[in-house]
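ARCHIVE CARD
CATEGORY: sequence design from structure
SOURCE FIELD: tokenized fold
FIELD CONTENT:
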């Protein structure tokens, strides 16, 4: 696990998993939201997203979290490990509302500076529809890459915790 792409719906826990995995594996973590949103929620153009990611994926090791479907192929093809957080929409929606309350009028640590936490009906609808609109496409991509990459699909917070514990245990046993 040298080059790790973490994908999943909003609220699935991508940033938290990335941060924890980065600490365990001592790898640099890149949160795409922090890179691609400028103060006041001004988005970075797709060309810039592409060039930034092409540079990042050439590094020796990394953890990159984020969806950004238009540039996802860049990460998936360079990753040796792909983690898909296939968490239920009810949990994702709950987490989005919870973090909105927690970070209200503040910027989350994994977000671009000057992007105070916000919530919108459009984003909540995107998350709610994710299992029927985005998930099938992602599963198809992952299936096509499963022979050449390690593909890990975690479907619950409990599975995420167990995964992290297995990683910690395997590192502890190697030392």
């Amino acid at each position: 696990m040298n080059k790790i792409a973490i994908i999943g719906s909003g609220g699935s826990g991508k940033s938290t998993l990335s941060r924890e995995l980065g600490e365990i594996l001592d790898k640099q973590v890149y949160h795409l939201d922090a890179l691609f949103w400028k103060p006041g929620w001004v988005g970075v153009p797709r060309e810039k997203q592409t060039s930034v990611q092409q540079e990042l994926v050439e590094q020796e090791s990394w953890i990159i979290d984020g969806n950004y479907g238009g540039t996802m192929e860049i990460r998936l093809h360079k990753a040796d490990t792909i983690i898909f957080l296939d968490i239920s929409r009810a949990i994702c929606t709950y987490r989005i509302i919870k973090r909105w309350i927690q970070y209200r009028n503040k910027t989350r640590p994994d977000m671009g500076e000057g992007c105070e936490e916000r919530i919108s009906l459009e984003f909540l609808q995107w998350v709610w529809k994710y299992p029927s609109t985005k998930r099938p496409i992602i599963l198809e991509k992952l299936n096509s890459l499963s022979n050449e990459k390690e593909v890990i699909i975690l479907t619950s917070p409990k599975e995420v915790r167990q995964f992290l514990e297995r990683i910690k245990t395997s590192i502890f046993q190697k030392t």
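CARD ANNOTATION: The chain has one domain: 3-155. Residues 81 and 150 are 5 Å apart (CA to CA).
SHELF: design records, drawer C
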